[in-house]
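Subject: sequence -> structure tokens, single chain

Hey, anyone have a minute? Need the predicted structure for the following. Not urgent.
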Amino acid sequence: MSKELIELMRQADALTPDEQLSLIAYLTQRLQRCEIKRKPRRNVMEFAGIAPNHLGGIDAQEYVRRIRSGEPLEPEIEKMQSRKEE
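Reply:
Had a minute. Here:
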């Protein structure tokens, strides 16, 4: 929360109940005239193929299998990254 909002909330607490209702009515009317833009929903398929880039080229299923079995991943990731640089 911004400092300004916190200050406004503190000031609203000091108002009488009638004044608070008037403030709510004012803000409600003001917001009804505004167009509130919502964030677009993301499709999970937008993320397809991202993991191999972050895992050094290792398939996500292989990565999970290795993590669960306790196999080290660092040497293979470094090897794959050095191949990309060549």
